[in-house]
Amino acid sequence: QVQLVESGGGLVQPGGSLRLSCAASGIIFSIYTMGWYRQAPGKQRELVASTTSGGGTRYADSVKGRFTISRDNAKTTVYLEMNRLKPEDTAVYYCNADIPTSTGRYVYWGQGTQVTVSS
Q: What would the pLDDT profile of 60-90 be if each residue is shown by its tens digit?
């Protein structure tokens, strides 16, 4: 079955850094668009960053210049490098795998990892 397992969350001070990892199994990783979403308490889940099978990337305006998404197809893992973290980055971060096909769209989610930015 498909599994997306996130790791790397935790508590960090404002201005600090964290690196999230998402290890995927059960999918042909290289053909999926992989993304990171986040959901803060009382707010809707939002896209943070995504990377396509061709290596294209997309970022939310709020994280541009601070976060970097990357993928290692050989390791079937996607990463999110987060720098200059702010308290407003506090949220549960979810890994996402997404691919449209002729028979429908396949979307998978990880269980989430908590990121807390606080002094």
A: 999 999 999 999 999 999 999 999 999 999 9
Per DSSP, what are the bridge partners of residue 25? 3
User: Which of 27, 34, 20 has its CA nearest to residue 93?
Assistant: 20
Q: What is the pLDDT of residue 83?
A: 98
Q: What is the mean pLDDT of residues 91-97?
A: 97
What's the Cα-to-Cα distance from 8 to each of 21, 24, 79, 96, rounded to whole Å? 6, 15, 10, 16
Cα dist. 29→71, 78, 79, 87, 107 in Å?
A: 10, 10, 13, 32, 12
* Element spanning 91, H or E: strand 91-101
H/E run at residue 4: strand 3-7
Give the DSSP per-residue string, 26-45.
SS-GGGSEEEEEEE-TTS--
